[in-house]
Design goal:
single chain; 188 residues; alpha+beta; globular
Length: 188
């Protein structure tokens, strides 16, 4: 089932997510719905807060960018309770976008060599070293679980320059090609 993507300004995007336990109801169904939502929205990743759930769940299918970034080929995972360890390397600046920030893209500095630990949907543990653009995708999605957005990594000057666009998203004046849930209107 396609779910609406929660857009910038919605409070759920700024809350820290909670760990998933073995008592989590319908985990596999939720993950399937998240993948369907991500594909319909033409994203390569989606975190549970982006569908209004503050649970430590991320889905990624990096295959669509594999022509430009070969390390992404065939990398499709559901990450339950993911943990990232930064391994080494200087931060690299690359453009990032986000389904929760439609129409925006900004250069973000991130390290591109990490160790990722996660559980699959059967709650089996996995660990993998990841490099390049794939590491960027994983870090971007896992930031959502901490209540962070990629714009939190840009300079104050850049934030000032996009302030009007951010307000348009919050005010529901930005449209996207997928079902979206806008921030609640403030009462006057």
């Amino acid at each position: 089932m396609k779910l609406p993507v929660y857009l910038y300004g919605h409070p759920v995007l700024r809350k820290e997510s909670v760990e998933v336990t073995d008592q989590y109801p319908d985990l596999k169904k939720l993950v399937d719905d998240m993948f369907e939502t991500m594909y319909h929205s033409e994203g390569v990743g989606l975190a549970a807060p982006q569908i209004g759930r503050n649970d430590r769940i991320v889905v990624i299918d990096a295959s669509p960018v594999a022509d430009s970034f070969p390390e992404c080929a065939g990398w499709k995972q559901a990450l339950i309770n993911p943990e990232i360890e930064i391994l080494d390397g200087e931060p690299v600046s690359r453009a990032e976008g986000c389904l929760s920030l439609p129409g925006l893209s900004e250069d973000v500095n991130r390290v591109e060599h990490i160790r990722l630990k996660w559980l699959d949907t059967d709650l089996n543990p996995h660990e993998q070293e990841i490099s390049g653009f794939l590491a960027r995708i994983v870090q971007h999605e896992c930031d959502h679980l901490e209540g962070k957005l990629y714009i939190d990594h840009i300079s104050l000057i850049r934030k000032q320059l996009i302030r009007g666009k951010l307000h348009n998203i919050m005010d529901g004046k930005t449209r996207c090609d997928y079902p979206a849930k806008y921030a609640p209107k403030k009462k006057k």
